[in-house]
């Protein structure tokens, strides 16, 4: 687990694409939380939970948007968030394998 956190830290410091994707996913989550708290009158925890479940494609279905505006917003949240989340996960996955890691020391 510590290796994963170290990898995320190194990617954050050294990979601008990973940094941009992370900021995008966090920004989409923050925007979604504010939107659902305002439009659906959900609590902070419910709104955050819904955004994370939607972007990570888990989607239990226990919370659902009720208005047309919320449903449209959810479509765009999912389209932007899922793509960004998968791209971010692909970068992490690629760098988890020792032979692909940019942090691996090169032999001279």
Could you explain the architecture of this structure?
The protein has 108 residues and is an all-alpha fold. It has a single domain (16-95), classed as Helix Hairpins, CATH 1.10.287.70. Helices cover 72% and strands 0% of the residues. It contains four helices and no strands. It is elongated. The mean pLDDT is 92.
The main pleated sheet reads as: none
How many E-type strands? 0
Count of helical stretches = 4
Q: Mind telling me the CATH class?
A: Mainly Alpha
Unreliable stretches, pLDDT < 50, 5 or more residues? none
Q: What series of H and E elements makes up the topology? A: HHHH
Amino- and carboxy-terminal Cα gap: 30 Å
Key traits:
72% helix; 0% strand; 108 residues; Helix Hairpins
Sum this structure up briefly.
With 108 residues, the protein is mainly α.
Summarize the SSE layout with pairings:
Elements: H1 2-14, H2 16-39, H3 44-55, H4 68-96
